[in-house]
Structures are given as C-alpha cells and as structure tokens.
Amino acid sequence: MSAARLRVDLARILADIDTLRARIAPARLMLVVKNDAYGHGIERVVAAAAAAGVEWFGAFDIRMGTRARAAAGDGPRVFSWVTVGRDEIATALDAAIELGVGDAGYLEEVAAVATARGDRPALVHLKIDTGLHRNGIRPEDWPTVVARAAELEAAGAVHVVGVWSHIAETSEETDDLARAEFLAAVDAARAAGLRPEVRHLAASAAGYARPEFRNDLVRFGAFCYGIRSTDGADLDGIVPAATLLAPVTRVDGDTVQVAYGSLDGLPSTLGGRVSVGTPGAPARCAPSARRPSPWTPGPALPSATRWPCSAPVRSASRRRRRWPRRSARSARRSSCASPRSSRASTSDPGARPGPALCRRRPRHAHRGRLATPPCPVGHDAVPASSRQHRRRTLRAAVRG
Ligand SMILES: Cc1ncc(COP(=O)(O)O)c(C=O)c1O
Asked: Is 378 a member of any domain?
C-alpha cells in the first residue's frame, strides 16, 4: 500500500442509522452531514440515506446544504443552521433549504429576501440560546422575537416550522437546565401564535441516551457514522463506518510512524493515543494498554498487533511553553472546565480545570481535541448578570 486511504462502508452507515431510528421512534432522525458528512463523503452518504428513507438532513453551512439538496433530490428536507447574508439566504431559498435563525436581525433579513422574491415564505427554525451561547436568541429577547416572527408569518414572509436549540451534553444537570429553557421557549412561541411543526434539541449523545430530549426530531451526526462520544461507552448496534489505512513507515520499539499527515491527517493531539494494526513482527511489541480511538483500523489487517502510534507530535510540556503566559487571575477567569471536560483533560497534565461554568468541551474523540486548553473567548469572564440569575433560578426549579 503506497498511500493513505479512508475506506467508508456505506452499508454500515445505513445500519447505524436504522439502529438509531428504531431507538428514537416515534421521534424522527435528522442525519447531520456537516463537514462533508464528517469526512465520509456527503454526496454518497446523502444519496444512500435518502434512498433508505431518511427524511431530514442537517448541514452546518450553505455549501453543505446545497450539496445535500443536490444529492437528496426534492423529497427530503434540508436544514442549514449557519447561513450568512442575503446571498446565502437567496441560495437557500432556491434550493428549498430551511434556515436556522438565531438572531432577530437575521430574521428580518430572511423575511426581506423572501418578500423580495415574492414566491413563497422562507421556512425557518428559530433557535433559542439554552446556555451554549452559540448563535441563539437570548431568553430575555425571545418573547419579542417570537411576536415579530408571528407578524412576519402573517405577512407571508416566513413560516416558522421549527423551534430548536443545541445543548452541551456535558452533564445531565446542565442539559436539564437547557431543556427547561427550551420547553419554556416552545410554550412562548405557541403563545405568540406560532405553530412549530418540529422541536429539536438533542444531538447524538442526549438523543441516544435520554428519551425526554428527543422531542420530534433528533439531529444525529457522530453516532450515524459509528463515532462514539469521548469516554463514552460502546453503543449497542453502532459500529464505525470508516477505516483508515496508511502505510507504516517506521517501527521503533513499541511505537510506529505512519505515513499520514498531522495537520490534514491524523490530528497531532492523537499521537501516542491511537492504536495501529501492523501485520508484521508481533513478537516485538506488547499490546498497547491504551484505549484504542475510534480510528483504530486493527481488525482490518490480518495478524494485526496494536501499536501506539507515534504520529509526530509536540510534547505536552513543549505545547505548554508555547502558550502565552497569563496571570493566575486571568487564567482562573478564562479557563473552561465542565465536569466532563476536566475528565477529558487528564490526558494533558498542563490543562487545569477552572470554574465549572463554560460548557465548551471536546465532544468526540474524532475531533482530536482531547486536551482542554484555556477557553479563547473567556466564557467565564462574564460578570454576574441577569442571565446567571436566570440560570440559577432555573436550576432551583429543575431541582425542585
Ligand atoms: C447544531 C448541531 N446539531 C447537531 C450536531 C450533531 O452532533 P453529534 O455529532 O454530536 O451528533 C452538531 C454537531 O456539531 C451541531 O452543531
């Protein structure tokens, strides 16, 4: 073998999807195909899934949204949650893509583009920010925005087909708070006269494990491709669909070097943590005690022995030295550490847990972010505010 190859088993993806659909019924499954269907090839994945009866596809941006639409044909619904500007709105309307809207100003833009075209209302899914602080309407602004959406709906500019949010899936407690916020938002939307047909909140982890999070629709990405959560248990009937094959170019003691890039290829943060199946010299190496990552292609090779991979990496100590030094106070204010992110960070002795307010965390091993670096946007550097007050109140309500 001379070059690295990713072998994708489409039948396996369909089998994973079937397992998930059966598990969440009567809720429906949206197949998330962002980033070229998590690197599995969006056209082939979408065409096969549409032929197998998948009704919803979820694309992060307009580029993936239009590719999903082209591959899916006219029947299935395509939802894109990060579109930007009027050109993309127009492109989405041309391709019958439903738009995630997490901002009052953007709602006006969508309505303006649809009105100018004059053919049909834009289908929108309004997003409530339930604590992740990623592109969502703040709870305090929600009543005003849904009232405005109802006006725009009456004028024929938009049709609100969904209310949605995205949760951190970092702990049951924070997810419960987010769910309470979400359900309150759905009630407020209905009280404003909107009749959303789908409510969607959960992605893979919560959709799989927690029935009360499924609502009408679950946006499944990782699990459809057989990628389990970092530190997550194996999942019944869910098997990885991709196998990475790359030549082993050097064997050195109990490590090997594989001919695969560390920027576009295997993330360098996985160095020393990935097991590699090699066909030769089984006597030279004891099996690795490390937990194999989802990328492990061991079973694909005959007489394979698992070797820790030595993809070129900077050591943790070198990485730490390169980070700008910060005062203890600013480090305390800006580091991210939810309960699970601090667990994940045990792989990096340099990562120190901070106050447990930020929900940012490495969610899946395939993303390669196994350590927890300081939060670049200083999520915790927010003064006590009405938002925190509201969250405390909600927390008390959920406990009660
Ligand atoms: C808004 C949204 N929904 C769903 C997903 C799918 O998440 P998962 O891969 O955990 O299923 C993602 C992935 O990042 C997302 O951003």
From this structure: yes
Q: Are 60 and 219 in contact (CB under 8 A)?
A: no
Q: What is the pLDDT of residue 191?
A: 98
In a domain, 392, yes or no: yes
Tell me, yes or no, whether 68 and 179 share the same domain.
Answer: yes
370 closest CA partner among 297, 300, 313, 325? 313
State pLDDT tens for residues 176-220: 999 999 999 999 999 999 999 999 999 999 999 999 999 999 999
Distance 214 CA to ligand 1 centre (A): 14
For the CA of 204, the nearest atom of ligand 1: 11
Cis peptide before 26 (omega within 30 of 0): yes
CA of residue 306 to ligand 1 center, whole Å: 31
pLDDT tens-digit readout, 374-400: 333 333 222 234 445 455 555 555 553
- Cα(first)–Cα(last) distance of the chain, in Å? 61
- Domain C-terminal end among 267, 292, 308: 308
Residue 286 and residue 361 share a domain: no
Å from CA of 329 to ligand 1 middle = 33
- Measure 77 CA to ligand 1 centroid, in angstroms: 17
Q: Mutation test of ligand 1: which of 29, 98, 166 has the most ligand atoms closer than 8 Å to its C-beta?
A: 166
pLDDT of 301-340, one tens digit each?
332 333 333 333 332 333 333 333 334 444 334 333 232 3
Q: Is the dihedral of CA 153, 158, 163, 167 positive or negative?
A: negative
User: Ligand 1, closest atom to CA 30?
Assistant: 4
- Indicate the SS3 state at residue 363: coil
The model's pTM: 0.72
Q: How far apart are CA 143 and CA 184, in angstroms?
A: 11
Pocket probe mutation, ligand 1, options 20, 23, 31, 32, max atoms within 8 Å of Cβ: 32
Q: 283 lies in which domain range?
A: 246-308
Asked if the structure places residue 230 within a domain, the reply is no
Are residue 345 and residue 299 in the same domain, yes or no? no
Nearest Cα residue to atom 10 of ligand 1: 204
What's 171's domain CATH number? 3.20.20.10
Residue 89 is assigned to a structural domain of this protein: yes
Task: State the average pLDDT over residues 41-61.
Answer: 98
Count structural domains, the chain: 3
**Average pLDDT along the chain:** 75
CA of 219 to the centre of ligand 1 (A): 6
Q: Which of 193, 225, 257 is the last residue of a domain?
A: 225
In whole angstroms, give the CA distance from residue 55 to residue 321: 49
Cα(135) to centroid(ligand 1), Å: 14
